[in-house]
Amino acid sequence: MAFVFALILVALALFATEALPVDVTAIGVMVALMLVEPTTESLVQAGLLAEPIYILHRPGDGVSPLTQGLSGFASTATITVLAMFILSDGVQRTGIVQILGSKLASLTGDSETRQLGATVGLVGPISGFINNTAAVAILLPMVTDIAHSGKISPSKLLLPLSYASMFGGMLTLIGTSTNILASQLSADLLGRPFSMFEFTQLGLVVTVVGTIYLLTVGRWLVPGRIPAREDLTDEFEMGEYLTEVVVREDSPIVGQTVREALAETDFDVDVIQLIRGKRTFLEPLDPKTIQAGDVFALRTDRDTLVDLLDAEGLDLIPEVDVDDAELERASEQQNLVELVVSPGSSLVGETLTSANFRQRYDATVLALRRGRELFRQRMDRVGLKVGDTLLVQATADSIDRLNINNDFIVAQEVERPDYRRSKIPVAVGIVAAVVAVAALTPIHIVVSALAGAVAMILTGCLRPPELYDAVQWDVIFLLAGVIPLGIALQETGGADLLAEAFVLAAPGLPPLVVLGLMYVVTALLTNVISNNASVVLMVPVAVEAARQLEANAFAFVLAVTFAASTAFMTPVGYQTNLLVYGPGGYRFTDYVKVGAPLQAVFAVVTTLGIAFFWGLAPQ
């Protein structure tokens, strides 16, 4: 038991600090659990230990610790979540969400109330049936454009977008991966999984309450960090970092390529575009041979510029404002956009240099925003994180490629030519069939979801190679890694001990109050670590606490499930919060200011709702 608690503390620290990616931490936990028994058996044989330590099973129960350790990969929860990612992607690729969004956008005008109502009203129901992270990723560009077109700060809409996707995910079993995982844990511990619409009635109550909060108190508390866009270069405060220079006749770089002269220099400088006569060139610029009279638009700071002018034989062009209009002169189409690093992106942990960003995507990064922090110098040294927003200059073709790249979300609406709009009825019908089969027949959700994933391929909604891009593999490995930790907590008696401590900490309190405390503790935990890890750790504790109180254990499982799926108080508590962190320019404290009151309201509403709908008497 001591080893399990020590491992939990280490895992919690790694989850909270993100010293390692959460999926790597989870797999490390799984490996550590599987190593305990064979290692201690070797120590016993060497006479260094009295008896082996059993973590994943008990002696004589006929269960293999290896099977238990790897059970997360065979878990119905893991496979169901994987299938739901595929179903969500199939729907997404039809463009139906964009169609709904554009129709709503046409009705909102410049009214903040209507914009906010449309945002919350659209993402909530959608998140009940497709992955809520995907819903936010799809709607983020539309919501940003709605805000800017109405001269409203996008910050006023993006945090509500994230929050509404979370409580909208509580409308059905398939709304979040957390619900699916909690359902399996409930089945294992209580023999009672969640049905498709098990908690829809409470989900509706929570959604209505959350919507009212966001339209009233939340509207007042959410800050307008990002101004309504007039100019992206102004938004990223690029005035002191963008300039134009001309190559002198006597410049030593005449005859060299851009790569030789400027791209590989030690100076902190990026060549944004080349103007030669009446023509303007964007990436790829490296192979271009420099001529006298060439004009370069550069991203650099003033001190570096002074040194660069002297060293390379360049002259500053005075009285030129390098703004959006100047940077987009190369094309009639938009070539200056914001990119958001998406969950599961291959660039997470990489720098712009190590990812070879410029050559890989034929695009130049002018600035990087992380919350309120702006990087406009030495960006090539900054490790990228989910939610980072990049101000990028690129050709229209490059932007089209970036728009269909799962590593990024383009934060403005860019029409995708690959939407399969003719497949909209088919994709929606497949998802509806998956829901109906799971809800109305004895067929398990994992079977109907897998069948739906196969149907997406057979009907052409998805192509076979797109299956692998559809899945957020970090979530799958996280689930597979943390499930054995929950088993270890149960097998060693750790869950019993924590439940006893929980009950003793609230002596004499009625079950309703203890239920509320269980919600609060889980909510605080899930705001710091992964929501799936919170469910794995807290569901066994909740079940044991209910048994000691002689209360309804299923009600306690529901409290943990709702709390784990509604992490409002930190940007790291939920992936959707991270997605809007950079585009909204938020501070960490904004999540506390707006999310803490909402979390408190939900603690009361959810606790009372569970008591009303399911009761607290033992069943």
UniProtKB/TrEMBL annotation:
Transmembrane segments: 66-87, 157-182, 202-222, 426-458, 470-489, 501-522, 553-574, 594-617
SUPFAM superfamilies (alphabetical): TrkA C-terminal domain-like
Annotated Gene Ontology cellular component terms: plasma membrane
Subcellular location: Membrane
Record has Repeat as a keyword: yes
GO molecular function: monoatomic cation transmembrane transporter activity
One biological process term in Gene Ontology: potassium ion transport
Keyword annotations from UniProtKB, A to Z: Membrane, Repeat, Transmembrane, Transmembrane helix, Transport
RCK C-terminal domain segment(s): 230-314, 322-408
Membrane topology: Multi-pass membrane protein
Family matches, as InterPro entries: Cit_transptr-like_dom (IPR004680), DASS-Related_Transporters (IPR051679), Na/sul_symport_CS (IPR031312), RCK_C (IPR006037), RCK_C_sf (IPR036721)
Protein name stated in the entry: SLC13 family permease
